[in-house]
Amino acid sequence: RHMEEVLAESEERMKLALEGGEILAWDWDLLSGKIHLTPPPEDLPPSPEGYPLEILMERIHPEDLPTVLRGFREIQSTFQDGRFEHIYRRRHPEGRWAWIWSRGSVSRRDHNGRPLRVTGVARDVTERMDMQHAMKRSETRYRTLFDNALDAFLVVDEDTALVREANREAERLLGYLQQGMRGTRLRLLPCATGPE
């Protein structure tokens, strides 16, 4: 009786931790080909015997599917460490694509060392990926404007006076077209103020 209570309490803690961290746990039985998901996805009916891999693969973005399948094949044939880690897009129940980070490793092997079971976790990282893509777009816009500006621009490290960035016009005006200015120490020349 006491062991049942301890087990129930442990399962409740795990359930709360997964919910609190918005994490999905997965357990893939390589012999049956079924994957158990905890908690079950919103867009699939609960399945105590697990879900066929094919049903889950249908929800992965076509551009990401080959990489995910290659990772699954590698982990099935490995006698080594047997780790799996990917970020891929999955069709969300609302119809949009969600970015999913998934990581797992071989958790059981047969007596010859062949993987029998792979266990891991998955988490929706759409917000983080959207921010990364927005930063890349912003950097591309900045780089295009900076590099192609008609005015000369330098970005100089305040502490070391080293040029961190220089656009083409700055390099042209200052005679650095061939070697570039990055890493050059900026020496400010005294300005002539004219007759007093």
Walk me through this protein's architecture.
- It is a single chain.
- The protein has helices spanning 2-20, 53-57, 65-77, 126-148, 168-173, and strands spanning 23-29, 34-38, 51-52, 83-91, 97-109, 115-124, 154-156, 163-166.
- The chain has five helices and eight strands, in the order H-E-E-E-H-H-E-E-E-H-E-E-H.
- The chain is α+β, with helices and mostly antiparallel strands and 196 residues long.
- 34% of the residues lie in helices and 27% in strands.
- Strand 1 (23-29) and strand 2 (34-38) form a beta hairpin.
- It has a six-stranded antiparallel β-sheet, sandwiched between helices.
Task: Describe the structure concisely for a colleague.
This protein has 196 residues and is α+β, with helices and mostly antiparallel strands. It is built from five helices and eight strands, in the order H-E-E-E-H-H-E-E-E-H-E-E-H.
Low-confidence stretches: 189-194
Taking the alpha carbons of the first and last residues, their distance comes to 100 Å
Percent of residues in helices: 25-40%
Alpha-beta content class:
alpha+beta
Largest sheet: 6 strands, antiparallel
In spatial order, strands of the major sheet run 3-2-1-6-5-4
Number of H- or I-type helical stretches: 5
Query: What is the alpha-carbon Rg in Å?
Result: 28 Å
Instruction: Tell me what portion of residues adopts beta-strand conformation.
Output: 25-35%
Order of helices and strands: HEEEHHEEEHEEH
Mean pLDDT: 83
User: How many distinct beta strands?
Assistant: 8
Outline type:
elongated
